[in-house]
Amino acid sequence: MSDFDLVIRGGTVVTAADTVRADVGIRSGRIAAVADRLEDGAARVDASGLLVMPGGIDSHVHLAQPAFGGPAMADGFETGTRSAIAGGNTTVIPFALQPRGASLRASVADYHKEADGRSYCDYGFHLIISDPTASVLGQELPALVDDGYTSFKVFMTYDDLVLNDRQLLEVFDCARGCGALVMVHCEGYDAIRFMTERLEQAGRKAPYYHAVSRPESVEREATHRAISHAELTDVPVMIVHVSGREPMEQIRWAQRKGLKVYGETCPQYIALTADDLKGLNMDETGGKYVCSPPPRDHASWEAIWEGIRTGVFQTFSSDHCPFYYEGEQGKLNPKARTSFRWVPNGIPGVETRLPILYSKGVVEGRISLNEFVALTSTNHAKMYGLYPRKGSIAPGFDADLVLWDPNRKETIRQELMHHGADYTPYEGMAVTGWPVATYLRGMLVAEEGRIVGEPGDGGFLKRGLSPYAVPAHGREI
Ligand code: URP
Ligand code: ZN
Ligand code: ZN
Ligand code: ZN
User: Which intervals hold domain Amidohydrolase-related (predicted)?
Assistant: First the structure.
C-alpha cells in the first residue's frame, strides 16, 4: 500500500491541456501523483466511466449582499456554497460590496462575518467600489490588495453603485498602481434611466420592459467607454457578463488592437432570451428572468459561442445573484409589481453552470473537453491569482475535483437544486453531463446530489496578483 490518503482510480483525467486515462493520488489535501497506475491508498474510489476534472471555480457570484431597500438575497454563504458544491464547484469568488459612505475595510470585515465558518467551499472576495474617495484609493485599496483582495468590480449603472467617468478613471489608475484586476459592469446609466422613464410614462411596466430599457447598444456603448478608459490609463480590464454580439465585438476589437481587455460570459446568454421575460402573457412571471444585462435572442447565443470558440472570452461564470420569486421579499414583491424598475436584478445559477456549458458546449460539439475545463476552472484560477494552487490536476495543486458523468441525462428542476431560491430559471431544461461527486482538498463534500460536507469546510483564499493585470507599457504620467 502507498502513502496516499485517497486514490481516484480508472477515470479520464481532463485538464485545460490534456485528456488522459490516469489515477490520481491525493495526500494531505493535495494532488500527490497522476499516473497510469497508482498503488491503492488508505481509500480508493472507482472512477471508471467518469471524467475527473478540476473542481469548478466560479469567479462571479453574489452572496449575502445587502438589500439596498429592496428584497434580501436568497443565498448567504451557507446555502450559496452548498449549491456550488452540488454543482461540481470547489471555489467561488463573491463580492464584498462597499456601500456609499462606508469604509471598504469595514465592508470586507462584514462579509467575512457572513462567510467565515459557513462556507462549504473555498472562497475569495472581489471588492465592489461604489465610493472611490481619496482614502479608499490612497490607503484602503492598496492595503486590501496586499491582503489578497486582488480584484475590484466597478459599475457603470445602478443608482447605488454607478461611477461616473472620472471615478472610473481614478479606480483604474489605482488598480494599475496596486496591480489589481478591474472587472467592469458595462451598461450606460443615463441611457437606461431615460428609457426606463419613457417606458413607464407609456405604461410599459411589465418585467419584459426591463430588457427593452437596456438594449444591446447600451451595453456596447459602455463597453467601448470602459475600454477607452482602460486604454487611457493603460490598465487591463475584465468586461463581465457579456450578453451578445455588439459588446463581444468591442472586446474583440480591443484585443486585436493589442489592449489587455478580457471577457466573461454566463449561462443566461446561451440559454435564455428576452422572450422569457414576457412570462406567460406579459405578466409578472417574467420577473424570474430579470437580470442585467438581460438575456437577448438566439442570434446573440451564436455570437456568444463565436466569442467562446475564438478566445474572446476567458471565463464562463454564473453571475449567481439569487432572489426568491414568491413572497413579500421576492421578485414579485408589491413594489416590483408596479414597474420592472423595482424587480431585483439577478438570477440563481451557480449549480447549473457546469451542466449547461457541458451540454451545450461539449455534447453539442462546440467546444472541447479541455476548453470546458479552461472556461469553468483553469482560466478563473489564472485570471484571479489562484494559480497554481487551484484550477488544474497536477502534483502540488489542491485536490479540488469533480467526478463527472458525461452520459448522465438530467432535466434541471428546482427540486434538484440546493440554493436558497425558490425557483431555477432553467426549469425543464434537458442536459447531458452531470456532477457525480465533488472533492474539496481531498474531502468528499457532495455526492449524487447529497451534501456530505459541512459549513466551515471551505476557507478564505488570500489571492495573489493576477498575472493578467500587468500593464502593457509605461506611462508618461
Ligand atoms: O442582474 C444581475 N446580474 N445582478 C447581479 C449584479 C451584477 O451586475 O452582476
Ligand atoms: Zn500594494
Ligand atoms: Zn454586474
Ligand atoms: Zn454579477
Answer: 51-444
Confidence of residue 148 (pLDDT cuts 50, 70, 90): very high
DSSP string, 370-400: HHHHIIIIIHHHHHTT-TTTSSS-STTSB--
Distance of alpha carbon 386 from alpha carbon 447, whole angstroms: 25
Q: Where are the domains of the chain?
A: 56-367
Instruction: Please state, in angstroms and rounded to a whole number, the distance separating the CA atoms of residues 190 and 118.
Output: 39
Q: DSSP secondary structure string, 294-322?
A: PP--HHHHHHHHHHHHTTS--EE---B--
3-state secondary structure of 209: helix
Dump pLDDT digits (tens) for 164-174: 999 999 999 99
Which residues lie with the beta carbon below 6 Å from any ligand 1 atom?
62, 185, 241, 291-292, 319, 321, 345-346
Ligand 3 center–CA 10 separation, angstroms: 41
The Å distance, Cα 223 to ligand 2 centre, comes to 27
Question: How far is CA 164 from each of CA 184, 235, 316, rounded to the nearest angstrom?
Answer: 13, 17, 28
Tell the residue nearest (CA) to atom 5 of ligand 1: 346
pTM, two decimal places: 0.98
Phi, psi of 308, deg, nearest 5: -70, -50
Other C-beta atoms closer than 10 Å to the C-beta of 326 total 11
User: Do residues 373 and 357 touch, judged by C-beta distance below 8 A?
Assistant: no
Task: Please give the distance, rounded to the nearest whole angstrom, from the Cα atom of residue 79 to the centre of ligand 2.
Answer: 33
Q: For cell 466573461, what's the residue?
A: 264
Domain boundaries 56-367, corresponding CATH code: 3.20.20.140
